[in-house]
């Protein structure tokens, strides 16, 4: 099962957000987004928490298999859920503008 990135319209606002807010504030916003979607008892974004909060994302018609694929896309440790680090990495991976300009956007802190 593979997540179809083209199934949803996605405008990549992340590069302009970093330019306007700065890298530190942007990371803070990603962390806020993670907390909005996470299961408060587990501290992770789980299937149930993502399904429950899908309305916040404007995804009221999302199917269960699409939620599973979204989680699989970012699940680096194989536990079926997203930690805050996995969520942030996924957001960066899904933003072509951030990948292309990561050294400029984040102050060259990579190597």
UniProtKB/TrEMBL annotation:
<feature type="domain" description="EF-hand">
    <location>
        <begin position="62"/>
        <end position="97"/>
    </location>
</feature>
<keyword id="KW-0106">Calcium</keyword>
<dbReference type="InterPro" id="IPR002048">
    <property type="entry name" value="EF_hand_dom"/>
</dbReference>
<dbReference type="InterPro" id="IPR044205">
    <property type="entry name" value="KIC/PBP1/KRP1"/>
</dbReference>
<dbReference type="GO" id="GO:0005509">
    <property type="term" value="F:calcium ion binding"/>
</dbReference>
<dbReference type="Pfam" id="PF13833">
    <property type="entry name" value="EF-hand_8"/>
</dbReference>
<dbReference type="InterPro" id="IPR018247">
    <property type="entry name" value="EF_Hand_1_Ca_BS"/>
</dbReference>
<protein>
    <submittedName>
        <fullName>Calcium-binding protein PBP1-like</fullName>
    </submittedName>
</protein>
<dbReference type="InterPro" id="IPR011992">
    <property type="entry name" value="EF-hand-dom_pair"/>
</dbReference>
